[in-house]
Amino acid sequence: MGNVGYPIILRLIIVVLQKICHWFHLDESAALYEYILMQPRQCLTHLFPARETWILLVLLLVYLVAAPLIIMGLEWNGQAFQPILSKSSGFYKWLNSLFQVVQVRTSGPNSLPIAELTGASLILLAGAMYLSAYPLTIVMRTSNEQLKTNHEKTSRYQLTKMLSYDFVVIFLPWFLIAILEGPLSDTDLFAIFFEIVTAYGTVGCSIGAPNVNYSLSGTWSVTSKLIIIAIMLIGKHRGMPDDVDGAFNDWHSDDEEEDSVDPGRQTSRESA
Amino acid sequence: MEEATDKSTPERSDGQGSVGRQTPEKNPADPPMINEDLTNNISRLGKLILQGKGKLRTSYYVQHFIVWVFLSLVLGAVFYGAAAGKDSYINTLYMAVSAITATSLSSIDLSKPDLGPRIATLVFVTISGAVFESAIPIGLRLWRARGTQSRNPKVARGRAAILHLLVVIVCYYIVVQLTGFIAFGIYLEFSEDGSQIMHSSGNNAWWFSLFHVCTSFENAGFGFLPIATSSSTNSHSHCYSLGLWL
């Protein structure tokens, strides 16, 4: 509700408020809510037109249905479900799998022991973390009315731009940290990759380290920590609008039209 | 006098110079209007960024990034103070960046009952969430437009609309978190599973609820429970409650 579902729920709330105002003949408020629904990206960075909001909703639902089933299938008899085998039930396995796939798209608490998951599940989670910001960011950028050309507004253009950028941001730090923290086994190398992806996706789902109650990267050297800090900051900016956004637009387009309420601040145009 | 007037009017990027909006003449007897000057300066900065072309316009991302780096360094120092110097600056910087980017990777053991790091984490996480951040541009626009009326009905309607939107966002922000805080707190305080978790981990149910609901809503996911042991697997209601607010 605070991130992935925010644009969807906010639009739903605005639609409901608009209907309620209409029913109670609060025409002025209804018109304002209708304006917000018609010009969402002029009002807010996280409010999208109806079509884009539906696309986000469908993508979210597909993910929430498919990913838990895949995790359950991969881990059904594995170590990850051992702690809840006393309440051996498909429902609890599904619930914990659902919790896990929801959290890897956004935040960090785990319902399954990450270190006990199979390699295939970890790759699936890494992919989910990496792709987590894509739908929202691409919709945000393509719906930005400040973009000049139609080419810039296409999802394919924004996707290609982000992928080429992400490649550098993920693989260069992976290489550097592997040098700094070496010698490493294949498992360690994957753990580093997982840590980098989770930092870049601003998810925070770490495989962890033995005998410590913090993330794997918390055990690394100062230089490696600085690299992870930089990745977190870059990852945070991945989700922001590509350019000055339409939602900031009031500053320049409206100034020429405004007059001061205070008679002492009358503009020269009015005086003329 | 003429020179002073020119300086007070920012040059427009479209080459129209001072043809546009002009500042009113100031009566020397008037008291100094500090707030108005501050508003004008911020407004000019906004115009420079928004109307600028070439490097100035496209460097918006870089400017934003630099501000965040500076903010991280400062908040890292604040976190260091909150941790009473028990951890190194690199670790507190790491935690501060992790909190303000809502990542939740940690280099400090938050399961230890140290209040300073926990409060610092909660505050930093709260200001980093998508809902809070999305409301900032609206607040800035309304603050910029305060005390003025537009003769353009389209602009006036737009301002009224974003004011309505801001009210909706604030209500959403408060109601969702408050509901989660109460529901999760009741569960932790009064249910068998919840009270067992609180007893074994030595946490207060309401403080635990506040921290976890806020950090989940802001999509950070910091927690008081040890990372290695997943309480959620032992408590399915806990898992479900938190999952709802994610």
Q: So what's the overall shape of chain A?
A: globular
What's the N-to-C terminus distance of chain B? 59 Å
In what range is the share of β-strand residues of chain B? Answer: under 5%
Q: If you compute it from the alpha carbons, what radius of gyration of chain B comes out, rounded to the nearest whole angstrom?
A: 24 Å
| Biggest beta sheet summary of chain B | none
Oligomer: heterodimer
Measured as a percent range, the helix fraction of chain B is: 55-70%
Separate helix tally of chain A: 12
Q: Residue ranges of chain B: pLDDT <50 for 5 or more in a row?
A: 1-24, 52-58, 228-238
Topology:
The complex is a heterodimer of chains A (272) and B (246).
Chain A: H1 6-23, H2 27-38, H3 40-43, H4 50-75, H5 90-105, H6 119-131, H7 134-142, H8 155-181, H9 186-200, H10 222-238, H11 250-253, E1 258-260, H12 268-271
Chain B: H1 2-8, H2 34-51, H3 55-58, H4 60-82, H5 89-100, H6 115-126, H7 130-144, E1 148-150, H8 153-190, H9 192-201, H10 205-217, H11 236-245
What does the model show?
- With 272 residues, chain A is mostly helical.
- Chain A is built from twelve helices and one strand, in the order αααααααααααβα.
- The radius of gyration of chain A is 24 Å and the shape is globular.
- The model of chain A is unreliable at 251-272 (pLDDT under 50).
- Chain B is flat, with a radius of gyration of 24 Å.
- The longest helix of chain B has 38 residues, at 153-190.
- In chain B, helix 5 (89-100) packs parallel to helix 6 and helix 8 (153-190) packs antiparallel against helix 11.
- Chain B is mostly helical.
- Chains A and B meet through helix 1, helix 2, helix 5, helix 9 and helix 10 of A and helix 2, helix 4, helix 5, helix 7 and strand 1 of B.
